User: Which sequence fits this backbone?
């Protein structure tokens, strides 16, 4: 029987509800868990670890590092890891783990729920049952299991606050769809949980991975809107004597920005680049990819040496930028590392 290690980090799934308000109650969660999942031991041998108990909106890269250490520690003694996590920043955590644990050869699956486990009409039971069963399959990736879907972690984004169908993978097909049976897609078609060796990852060299060094303080994000004057918004902290910064511009369409008059973005980008900082261009559109060569404004940005986010999610763009700025020393090195596909992120 497979051994699955369950790591609790908090989130709605572990909360209780009283008088319309949610709160933590460890004893009630344990009682609800034991009552709701008597058959889990028929799927796998389950071990538990309570790492921390946080609303996911309070999580910080230091929590990602603690979780990565916990997963790496457990990886040598189990066949898969399931992480219980709040939905608000689950896709950020999944992206961060995908970059820092890419050398591990076990499935790492994050899940949670929109409604606490203790509530009658909760989605927690289905999500956790699916996650545990999927973790018995030899898929060496970081994934999210939610609402009968299995997503690649760094391709997933949260779409809904209240719907059970909370997540989507806009530019990548599902890894699996769960119905009466588990239907794997793409490279995992025909996968069986009886297989011993992990399924081959065609996009990743397991000998390479990022270290656990994030630099969230180095990031600034500017969503463009008509009339925005970038020269008035140059962050005070962008001092060439300080650590180089990453500025993420959320552009229109395929990477288009204003280039005329007082709202032109080009002088802003030129100044940032002259200071040695990094400028990433991503699209405000959820689907498809940044193509800077498609229009004149994009071509002008391209000539200034900006970095393209391609079709990456918002969450993977943020986490990869935090890592790349901490692991590179030049604009050229940063651009090359960020634009190189890693763990299927683009």
Assistant:
């Amino acid at each position: 029987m497979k051994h699955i290690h369950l790591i609790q980090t908090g989130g709605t799934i572990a909360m209780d509800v009283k008088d319309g308000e949610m709160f933590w109650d460890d004893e009630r969660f344990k009682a609800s868990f034991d009552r709701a999942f008597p058959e889990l031991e028929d799927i796998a041998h389950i071990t538990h670890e309570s790492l921390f108990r946080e609303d996911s909106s309070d999580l910080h890269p230091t929590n990602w590092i603690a979780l990565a250490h916990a997963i790496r520690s457990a990886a040598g003694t189990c066949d898969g890891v399931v992480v219980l996590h709040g939905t608000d920043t689950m896709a950020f955590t999944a992206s961060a783990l995908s970059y820092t644990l890419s050398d591990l050869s076990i499935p790492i699956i994050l899940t949670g729920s929109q409604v606490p486990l203790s509530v009658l009409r909760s989605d927690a039971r289905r999500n956790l049952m699916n996650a545990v069963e999927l973790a018995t399959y030899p898929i060496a990736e970081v994934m999210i299991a939610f609402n009968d879907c299995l997503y690649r972690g760094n391709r997933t984004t949260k779409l809904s606050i209240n719907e059970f169908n909370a997540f989507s993978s806009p530019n990548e097909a599902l890894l699996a769809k769960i119905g009466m049976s588990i239907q794997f897609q793409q490279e995992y078609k025909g996968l069986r949980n009886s297989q011993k060796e992990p399924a081959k990852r065609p996009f990743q060299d397991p000998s390479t991975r990022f270290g656990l060094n994030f630099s969230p303080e180095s990031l600034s994000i500017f969503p463009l809107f008509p009339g925005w004057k970038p020269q008035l918004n140059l962050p005070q902290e962008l001092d060439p004597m300080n650590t180089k910064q990453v500025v993420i511009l959320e552009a229109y369409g395929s990477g288009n920005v204003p280039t005329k008059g007082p709202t032109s973005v080009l002088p802003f980008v030129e100044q940032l680049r002259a200071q040695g900082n990094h400028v990433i261009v991503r699209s405000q559109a959820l689907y498809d990819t940044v193509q800077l060569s498609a229009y004149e404004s994009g071509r002008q940005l391209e000539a200034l040496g900006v970095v393209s986010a391609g079709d990456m999610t918002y969450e993977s763009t943020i986490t990869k930028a935090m890592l790349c700025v901490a692991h590179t020393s030049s604009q050229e090195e940063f651009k090359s590392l960020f634009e190189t596909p890693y763990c299927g992120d683009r």
